[in-house]
Design brief:
Helix content: 10-25%
Strand content: 25-35%
Structural class: alpha+beta
Radius of gyration: 39 Å
Low-confidence stretches: 89-94, 112-133, 162-202
Mean pLDDT: 73
Largest sheet: 6 strands, antiparallel
């Protein structure tokens, strides 16, 4: 099986970014082969700690510690990258490994066969037992030293551990998936996510209410504690951001769909189409309404005074013609602020007038209109519906009601006309 060892940063520039090996058993064996093939690489590992340089060994997105170097290597790439010691290791002891410790791990954890015999750094064996001397002895001692020093640092400055409280008497204030907002401190980081806080892990640190503020003595290089931060994305071509997108008829959706100028189309179950025609006929089967209906919930307009004759064969298509003449928009925070989409939902009801008896509802349909249209832009469409077939039906009249709306005050729906088969007969 082919395996790849990747050296990042300066290591890759000096000793090659990729090294391919076959049938390696562990990361320790991979490091050992690198040292055999590149003696200067081994020398650098031995001396790196003197210059404040450590190393992270990563495989499959996981930082490896010294004991992990003896685990099976597998097929994932092994990555070795230099880091400045003291920059933090993600909460575990030994995650930033000393270069001399890597050599020690390669000696102790790697296979005995071959060893490091003849590398010229004091490693040799007269009887095959492997006597470790010089720099190799220093390398072996590095593992124990790092663990001892790491344990001391944990005792001196332990990192806070957030309890994972569960059960019938436990609070869920530290569980991000179940958290609810309350007053008072929530956690030592952002208040709700429950992760540990490290005061010196980057150029900027964000902490929640109740976090400990460290006091530093002497000369330190650290980030700040941010009380709040805001990121705003702005378009320089429109510094005032008058609208979230280019307003116009192309933004209008009816039933969630863009309408065409061709034949009627089904939009969420209703038959609609765009039109630019002016339907001026005012005859027995088609009537002019020319009413403005305010875009506020509950606004209605009835055409009972101008009823339409219902004739045999003309019941299949009852059309409404509507137009937006004074825009459709909603400012984010009052007049002069950025314009966003507005919407409204209208309901169409057809009442039947029978030869005897009260008027009855014989058909109903509703649709939602949304989009961003300026006051000087317009949009016209037709809404087609059918109604029940009644043998003794004489005349019909429609009603339009705004059942829900979110739009800037003063905007309205212009109801131009209604009647049977307007498009086919009078378009």
């Amino acid at each position: 099986m082919q395996q790849t060892v990747r050296l990042l940063g300066d290591l890759g520039e000096r000793y090659g970014a990729e090294h391919e090996y076959y049938n390696l058993k562990s990361p320790a064996e991979a490091i050992k082969l690198l040292c055999i093939n590149k003696p200067e690489f081994m020398q650098e590992l031995c001396e790196a700690h003197e210059h404040g340089i450590g190393y992270r060994v990563i495989q499959a997105g996981t930082d490896l510690d010294y004991p992990d170097l003896a685990l099976p290597l597998g097929s994932h790439d092994l990555i070795v990258t230099p880091v400045v010691t003291g920059s933090g290791g993600g909460g575990g002891v030994g995650r930033i490994l000393a270069g001399v410790g890597l050599i020690a791990a390669a000696i102790v954890l790697g296979p005995a066969a071959g060893g490091f015999i003849g590398l010229g750094l004091g490693l040799g064996s007269a009887a095959g037992a492997g006597i470790i001397t010089g720099l190799a002895a220093t390398a072996v001692g590095a593992i124990g030293a790092s663990l001892v020093l790491g344990g001391i640092s944990e005792i001196i400055a332990p990192q806070p551990v957030i309890p994972n409280l569960r059960g019938s008497f436990a609070s869920n204030r530290f569980l991000s998936a179940e958290s609810t907002s309350t007053d008072g401190p929530q956690s030592v980081t952002r208040g709700l996510d429950g992760r540990q806080s490290y005061a010196y892990t980057g150029a900027a640190n964000t902490v929640g209410v109740g976090a400990v503020i460290p006091v530093a003595y002497g000369e330190v290089l650290s980030g700040s504690h941010l009380l709040s931060a805001t990121v705003e994305v702005a378009d320089d071509s429109d510094p005032l951001k008058t609208a979230i997108k280019a307003p116009g008829p192309q933004t209008i959706l009816i039933g969630g769909e863009v309408l065409n100028f061709g034949s009627f189309q089904s939009a969420s179950g209703v038959d609609v189409r765009r039109t630019n025609n002016t339907f001026s006929a005012d005859v027995s089967r088609v009537k002019q309404k020319r009413a403005h209906i305010s875009l506020v919930s509950g606004a209605t307009s009835s055409a009972k005074s101008k009823q339409v004759d219902e004739r045999s064969g003309a019941r299949d298509s009852f059309d409404f013609v509507f137009e937006l003449q004074d825009g459709l928009f909603d400012p984010v925070s009052g007049a002069g602020s950025t314009l966003v989409d507005a919407f409204f939902t209208y309901r169409l009801t057809i009442f039947g007038n029978f030869e005897s008896g009260p008027d009855q509802v014989i058909g109903s349909s509703q649709a939602t209109v949304q989009g961003l249209l300026l006051a000087n832009q317009s949009y016209k469409w037709m809404h087609r519906m059918s109604h029940g077939d009644q043998s003794n039906l004489n005349k019909v009249f429609p009603e339009v009601e705004i059942i829900e709306a979110r739009a800037f005050p003063g905007q309205s729906l212009f109801w131009q006309s209604y009647g049977y088969e307007q498009f086919e007969r009078y378009g």
